[in-house]
Amino acid sequence: MIPTELTPEVAAIGIALGLVFSLICYLTTNLSPGGMITPGWLALTLVEDLQRAGLTVAVTLLTFLTTRVVQKLVILYGKRLFAAVVLTGVVFQGAVTLVLQHQLPTLYANQTLGFIVPGLIAYQLVRQPKGATLMATGTVTLANYVVLAAALLLGALPGS
Length: 160
Hints:
- Keywords: Membrane, Transmembrane, Transmembrane helix.
- This is Poly-gamma-glutamate biosynthesis protein PgsC/CapC.
- InterPro entries: Capsule_biosynth_CapC.
- The chain crosses the membrane at residues 12-32, 52-70, 82-101, 107-126, 133-157.
- This protein has one domain.
- The N and C termini lie close together (11 Å).
- With 160 residues, the protein is mainly α.
- The chain is built from 6 helices and no strands.
- The radius of gyration is 16 Å and the shape is globular.
- The protein has helices at 8-29, 38-48, 50-73, 78-100, 117-127, 130-154.
- Helix 1 runs antiparallel to helix 6 (130-154).
């Protein structure tokens, strides 16, 4: 069985593994899989808590839809677009955290990086073809998850 609480070492390895898979994806397809750190973080989240991964997907969708509405009202491009999308994701993730924190306190322990992930994914959905971005993000996350879960199950990672 995969441990529910990951050590900092395992988390660092999971993020690093995600960076390697993301870079391979970007170099071979010229698509960003939702940002460089996203697949590693999503894979760690899938290993730890499926609920949190589902909430990340929901917040990403809300962030993307909100960005599309705001783009009809305000000219957003380049760094302003990036900042607006990531900030929107952080605000929505923060709101979800505040609402659910008392009901599910363990859901949000050690989740700082998770505040920016929905914004990173939504930003790539705005910039790249949606289907290709979702496929790249899903594929790289799945590859990372399989390697990470296998290593955890085999006891090949420190502290596992």
